[in-house]
């Protein structure tokens, strides 16, 4: 089961199905939140390496992207647990709110 290029709602559905397929669909919301937070820490570690070295190689970029993807997967997993099926609708609504706030 491999994702291809996809829209956000398709990615949301992919994460839901991937978790079932891998047997990870029994986690609690608390466990999911801890795992998400761990992934944010891993992303922060990669950003820290970037800041510390002051350079950004293709390998750094790949490692940072992998951690960003891990964060995205857990973020969408939490959205799935909340029963959100059309996150694109909420993205558009929230961005409209944000746009008004910053105009
Ligand atoms: Mg990770």
What order do the helices and strands come in, and which of them pair?
Elements: H1 8-22, H2 29-53, H3 58-81, H4 87-102
Helix pairs in contact: 1-3, 2-3
Task: Give an overview of the whole structure.
- By secondary structure, the protein is mainly α.
- It has one domain (16-102): MazG-like (Helix Hairpins, Orthogonal Bundle), CATH 1.10.287.
- The protein contains four helices and no strands.
- It has helices at 8-22, 29-53, 58-81, 87-102.
- Helix 1 (8-22) packs across helix 3 (58-81).
- The longest helix is centred in the middle third of the chain and has 25 residues, at 29-53.
- It starts with 7 loop residues before the first helix and ends with a helix.
- The mean pLDDT is 93.
- Magnesium ion binds next to helix 2 and helix 3.
What count of helical segments does DSSP give? 4
Overall CATH architecture: Orthogonal Bundle
Helix and strand composition category: mainly alpha
CATH class: Mainly Alpha
SSE order = HHHH
In the CATH hierarchy, the third-tier topology is known as: Helix Hairpins
Q: What distance separates the N and C termini?
A: 43 Å
Subunit arrangement of the protein: single chain
**Strand tally, please?**
0
Give the total of domains: 1
Strand content: under 5%
Short description:
This protein has 103 residues and is mainly α. It has four helices and no strands. It is globular.
